[in-house]
Amino acid sequence: MKPSILQLCPLMPHLEAALAERFDIHRFFETDAAVPGEQAASIRGVVTGGHIGIPATLAAQLPALEIVAINGVGFDKVDLGEAKRRGVRVSNTPDVLTEDVADLAIGLVIALLRQLALGDRHVREGRWPAGDLGLGHKVSRRRYGIFGLGRIGLAIARRLEGFDAEIHYASRSARDVAYPRHETLVELAAACDVLIVAAAASAETRHVIDRSVLDALGPKGVLVNVARGSLIDEAALLDALREGRIAGAALDVFADEPHVPEAFFALPNVVLTPHMASATHETRQAMADLVLANLDAHFAGRELPTALV
Ligand code: 8YV
Questions:
Q1: Domain 4-94+282-299 class?
Q2: With 234 labelled, which of 41, 103, 128, 195 sits at a CA distance of 20 to 30 A?
Q3: Which CATH architecture has domain 98-272?
Q4: Domain residues of the chain, as ranges?
């Protein structure tokens, strides 16, 4: 009999096909609902997205759970301590998406400072003949602050070097780099023109980008987030944008995805994308391969290639 797997979000069609060949798949996208009793008892694995993880209430309904395979690098929505306690293995898909996330961070910086989204709208809406779009701001030779100098933060820094940027960072631990490290986010924000958030979400980093950090960034500063929405106090950000206390923001992630506060839509100094930093054919293929490799290893009794727990 094929092992039963609960799938918590849509996946690439070829991954879904490969999973269906190996496993008895139960699609279950309403993760706050109750899993039917007879199904719940048989579930040995869960496949989920980094942005979804597995709610504790759902995990508690699955007595036979052995593995949670995350199709993403973020594990903030999986309780690793509880998984360890229950002997449930957890895997994610690190490294394969680092370049894409870093690329998107740079794309957002350019889109925001060089008004790409506004320029596109200007042309499409036939406004070019009537008037000028106005000027953007330079991307090269500016001061950048990176919060979170892990794999993704470092890849962003490497790309910024190509823009002759002055790079600063704040991170839990010091890295072996020549960039100045700041003890606090307020100090980091005060030292840069562009603050890029690339740190992992956790209880400690919830709402760390708050009013004081935004005020330190100042009326000429801009914020870019490719990490998780939870790191930013969105209400404070909206106030800062509306009141001109910062110059703009480019956001790929939000506190309550896929719901984006409509107040952002009215702001011209904001670029919004739908959590798409890893969304390329090549990277989603590599992530899918890793999800399968982890599940295959688990059910063959081998070490997981990218185990978290
Ligand atoms: C994905 C992510 O959008 O890797 C992560 O943690 O949030 C993104 O890469 C998502 O996990 C896709 O399932």
A1: alpha beta
A2: 103
A3: 3-Layer(aba) Sandwich (3.40)
A4: 4-94+282-299, 98-272
Contacts of residue 228, defined as CB under 8 A and 6 or more positions apart, other chains included, come to 74, 76, 200, 201, 253
Q: Report the predicted TM-score, pTM, of the whole model to 2 decimal places.
A: 0.96
For the Cβ of 50 lying below 6 angstroms from any atom of ligand 1, the answer is yes
**Tens-digit pLDDT profile for the chain (309 aa)?**
999 999 999 999 999 999 999 999 999 998 888 998 889 999 999 999 999 999 999 999 999 999 999 999 999 999 999 999 999 999 999 999 999 999 999 999 999 999 999 999 999 999 999 889 999 999 999 999 999 999 999 999 999 999 999 999 999 999 999 999 999 999 999 999 999 999 999 999 999 999 999 999 999 999 999 999 999 999 999 999 999 999 999 999 999 999 999 999 999 999 999 999 999 999 999 999 999 999 999 999 999 999 999
245 included as an active-site residue: no
Is any ligand 1 atom within 6 A of the Cβ of residue 31?
A: no
**Residues pairing with 249 in the sheet:** 223, 270
How far, in Å, CA of 260 to CA of 251, rounded? 10
